[in-house]
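Lab notebook, bench 4. The sequencing result for the construct came back, and we need a structural model before the next group meeting so we can plan mutations. Quick request posted to the team channel:

Model the 3D structure of this chain.
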Amino acid sequence: MKRSLLGWLVFSLFLLSQTAMTFGAEEIINGDLGGKIDRYMRKAEANGYAGSVLVARGENIVLAKGYGLADRENKIRQTAETVFSIGSITKQFTGAAILKLEMMGKLSVVDPISKYFGGVPADKKDITLHHLLTHTAGFKGALGDDYEPIGREEFVKLALGSELLFKPGERYEYSNVGFSLLGIIVELVSGKGYEEFLYGELFKPAGMERTGYLRPGFAKTELAVGYRDGQRWGTALDRPWRPEGPGWHLRANGGILSTVGDMHRWYLALRNNTVLSAAEKEKYFRPQVKEYPDGNSFYGYGWVTQKTERGATLIWHNGGNGIYNAFMGFEPESDLVIVASSNIAGKISDDYADRIERIVTGDYKELDERVLAEYSGTYRISSGAEIDVRFDENDNLQAAYRAKDLLGFLAASGQEDKAESERCDGKVKDMLNGILTGDFTALAQAWGEPLDVVKPRASSFWEAKTRELGEVKGFEVLGTVARPRNLLTYVRLDFAGRSQFLTYIWDKESGRLQEMRESENLEREFEPRSQSEFFSPPIGTMIIFKKDEKGEIVLMIRKNGMESRAKKVPALKGAI
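Done. Here's the predicted structure in token form:
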């Protein structure tokens, strides 16, 4: 008996010795580096993040773990095996499928689409597969809702009949339409369904049994549930799909389901030339076209290539639908690969991947949380306007405010044109005055859409708002600020229940309204430059914390040679 107990103790100690690396089959935290990444991700989880993460150097997994809840209502936690939608990362599978068919001698990326589709109109006859792969064909970003169950022939007809934004090959414009057409070409050339071809030629050789639309047979309970503003959005499987998968507004350009482990297997299959030859792989990752004139990123055949601040080559893609999102990227020189997912709107996988990369390379110094806690709170400037300060898991300062006289410091870029800003302010005043009297003419003109299209949509929105917050008592247009491609007009609406903010986003070139966003406050993020200095590059504003002669914390806002000071408002006794 004693001997058995001794054996059990030895065995138990052995098991405990392994827990620094592995906690069950689904979770890996390997060594000091894995521990550092895990501490950061647990901090992210405490700040509202939920998702799964894998970090590896080649075959060696540094961390594979889930954080937060995959399903809040049913208390299902995220794990390294939680299934999530990879969004537009799907495009790299479509790009690989085209190159696989080229390897098989069944097509060429220089083929015109007229070789595969009949009745191609004159403006599209010069479009090649290369144009579709590099977003240079001229198609619009999308032609319908992701979850509209549109069939193959109907989609082709819609795409070929759509108006191009520019002549093929003229420039880059990201387009889901082009990749869906590529997926249809995969079916036409191979004689197989899109998912069937991916599985046979890509996924199966890579060992990816938990990747696909329908073939893996996922139960809904295996998927991460998407959440926006605390509300359950659901999963991809809760949306209408066709019997063979999602409709063609989504298929082949997005929406494939996978796990961080399977995406790591995909990376290894590419690295080891398991699914593509070295020659095709070079074409696959090659920087084919510059994405933006003032940027350093280039698009390949379903991947983005760019240099990091350290000079390393980063090959990556992300995906999302405004609810959940995902990121996959690798640095070929160091064999570092990072896969991350998030099922919470606003918690962006790219941001976590960027910070993880900095932890791995030693380029990240965590700030003292005790000092940040001391800086957190409400600050008041001389006019009485207040700024609420908090810090997120990345040590970024999040400033929330509601007053018009802070707009210049916390929103304006310094590139504003007075006449242009006043025009936008006037448009928004006319729109809101009309809306409050039931006249949506000015709003329809701003959208550039027919009144009979805009009115039902807008009426529904405003009726829902008044049911939620009560009657509109008044509004104030706070002002318009400039961004490189847009103008943003901020408005405070005073409902009977409470105030809310709307941001109207205008396209600079066309002058049309592009989007409207709602928020409880106006917000600005500042990156840490030191323990006490935080900077916002888009607006050129610096926030600095100091202590005055009494030892009280003072917040200084500096911008374009101007400075404003704010004193910390004492917390109420008993406040939590």
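The chain has a mean pLDDT of 92.
Will bring this to the meeting.
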